[in-house]
């Protein structure tokens, strides 16, 4: 369709020495270009390349498995996810209502995740004082905090449950990663348990929330 730029005719005369004009130079350039194959296959020794490659992805171990006697059943899991979904819907309807929050205060969007007091139980008033960004940030901060724990208290589980109820969808990548960390932490603690107790029940709840409801458990 388009005419080639600097079109020239004839064959190059290599025996005449250096090109005497621009046309002769272009003839030689065209001739050299025609000698190059349209497809060139490079032969690469992949085994040598792999030995020199710097590892850039950490090897993340599988999520620990707990004793079958302590794992939640599929029936319980389904029933709980239904309850959890209804709880989230009820909070969303309350939080998006036209009336003021329970405390009558303006939602706090300053310093997310810093103003909450984990040593006390979460309340509806406290949660509704936060905006969506603050709730997500507080959830991420709390999950970061429990990574060094060997056990989770009832208060820890209450905060995690309440913040998971109120975090908005769709989740951002950072919050997804935090929920994945919560799943791994709860599963790790659960794997150390040998008998049923209140912590096992709470851990199963958090595993169901992070793994099943928020889709971080890859079966």
UniProtKB/TrEMBL annotation:
What is one cellular component GO term in this UniProt entry?
nucleus
What is the top-level taxon of the source organism? Eukaryota
Question: Which Pfam family is an annotated match for this chain, by its short name?
Answer: SIP1
Its BP terms in the Gene Ontology are: spliceosomal snRNP assembly
Q: What InterPro entries does the entry give?
A: Gemin2/Brr1
Give the record's family classification. Belongs to the gemin-2 family.
Supply the name of the protein.
Gem-associated protein 2
This chain's source organism reads: Aegilops tauschii subsp. strangulata
Q: What is the lineage of its organism?
A: Eukaryota, Viridiplantae, Streptophyta, Embryophyta, Tracheophyta
């Amino acid at each position: 369709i388009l005419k080639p730029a600097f079109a020239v005719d004839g064959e190059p005369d290599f025996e005449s020495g250096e090109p005497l004009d621009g046309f002769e130079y272009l003839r030689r350039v065209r001739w050299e270009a025609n000698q190059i194959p349209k497809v060139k296959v490079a032969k690469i020794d992949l085994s040598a390349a792999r030995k020199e490659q710097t590892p850039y992805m950490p090897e993340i171990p599988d999520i620990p498995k707990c004793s079958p006697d302590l794992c939640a059943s599929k029936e319980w899991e389904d029933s709980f996810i239904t309850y959890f979904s209804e709880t989230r819907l009820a909070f969303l309807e309350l939080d998006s209502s036209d009336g003021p929050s329970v405390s009558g205060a303006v939602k706090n969007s300053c310093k997310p995740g810093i103003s909450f007091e984990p040593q006390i139980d979460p309340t509806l008033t406290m949660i509704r004082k936060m905006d969506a960004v603050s709730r997500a940030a507080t959830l991420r901060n709390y999950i970061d905090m429990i990574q060094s724990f060997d056990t989770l208290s009832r208060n820890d589980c209450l905060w995690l449950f309440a913040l998971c109820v109120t975090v908005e969808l769709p989740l951002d990548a950072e919050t997804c990663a935090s929920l994945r960390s919560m799943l791994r932490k709860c599963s790790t603690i659960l794997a150390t348990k040998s008998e049923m107790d209140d912590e096992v029940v709470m851990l199963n709840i958090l595993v169901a929330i992070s793994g099943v409801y928020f889709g971080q458990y890859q079966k």
